[in-house]
């Protein structure tokens, strides 16, 4: 697919982009190349290709799900201004 200068101007207008008039032909050439590449990719049969979440089939390195800190809830609630039934009480800020 080959784009003309008028089509590039129309696309720029619709996208609200200001294009330097000296560079319109270069944009037309580059955008035409992109459109041709999309056409080539659309022609490829991908029916047998399984969907992937990532192009590289790698397992994520995850750390073990282990507790690394001890529970300090009681120590923190001792210094809190107001606590009830293990919950922090805060002033009402929304009417």
Question: Could you provide a short overview of the structure?
Answer:
This protein is 37% helix and 4% strand. With 95 residues, the protein is mainly α. Strand 1 (83-84) and strand 2 (87-88) form a beta hairpin.
Topology:
Layout: H1 5-14, H2 24-42, H3 73-78, E1 83-84, E2 87-88
Antiparallel strand pairs: 1-2
Helix pairs in contact: 1-2
Structure description:
It is a single chain. The mean pLDDT is 91. The chain has a domain of 38 residues. The chain is built from three helices and two strands, in the order αααββ. It has a two-stranded antiparallel ribbon with strand order 1-2. The chain is mainly α and 95 residues long. Helix 1 crosses helix 2.
Number of strands: 2
Oligomer: single chain
How much of the sequence is in beta strands?
under 5%
Helix and strand string, N-terminal first?
A: HHHEE
């Amino acid at each position: 697919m080959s784009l003309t200068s008028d089509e590039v101007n129309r696309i720029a207008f619709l996208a609200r982009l200001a294009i330097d008039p000296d560079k319109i032909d270069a944009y037309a050439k580059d955008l035409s190349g992109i459109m041709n590449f999309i056409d080539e990719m659309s022609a490829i049969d991908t029916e047998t290709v399984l969907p992937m979440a990532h192009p590289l089939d790698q397992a994520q390195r995850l750390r073990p799900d282990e507790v690394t800190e001890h529970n300090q809830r009681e120590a923190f609630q001792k210094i809190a201004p107001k606590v009830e039934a293990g919950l922090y009480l805060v002033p009402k800020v929304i009417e």
